[in-house]
Write a structure and sequence with these properties.
With 123 residues, the protein is an all-alpha fold. The chain has one domain. The chain is built from 4 helices and no strands.
């Protein structure tokens, strides 16, 4: 399975380490690509506030945001929680605490209603 398919899917479970790795990877790729593309457009248009620069930045933010939500859903599945709990991340302050919880909480051991324990195949 490619890394794109690993990030942009809601099927399956995601343990803490993989969640952390994929979130870091998504942040780095989206941040660097947004910076490079926006810089190139600013160079060619001569205006850092041009609609093209804003459109590229918005497009990459939406793609990264969708990936972030999908990773959260898979992590929530590992915790045995409903996928709609990702909406808690949108609440100021509580969302930060919730995000820390997703990084720190151990997943359910063994099977749950969303699938097999992702750590079971790593032993």
């Amino acid at each position: 399975m490619s890394i794109f398919n690993e990030i942009f899917t809601t099927k399956g479970l995601l343990n803490r380490l993989r969640y952390f790795k994929y979130m870091i990877l998504l942040a780095l790729v989206s941040g660097i690509s947004t910076f490079v593309m926006s810089s190139m457009l600013t160079f060619f248009t001569g205006n850092h506030e041009s609609p093209a620069v804003m459109l590229v930045t918005l497009m990459w933010a939406l793609i990264a945001g969708a990936g972030n939500v999908m990773l959260m859903i898979r992590r929530l599945h590992d915790l045995g929680k409903n996928s709609m709990f990702w909406l808690v991340a949108l609440i100021p302050v509580i969302g930060l605490i919730f995000s820390i919880y997703l990084f720190c909480a151990p997943g359910t051991k063994g099977w749950n209603e969303y699938g097999a324990d992702p750590l079971a195949d790593e032993y």
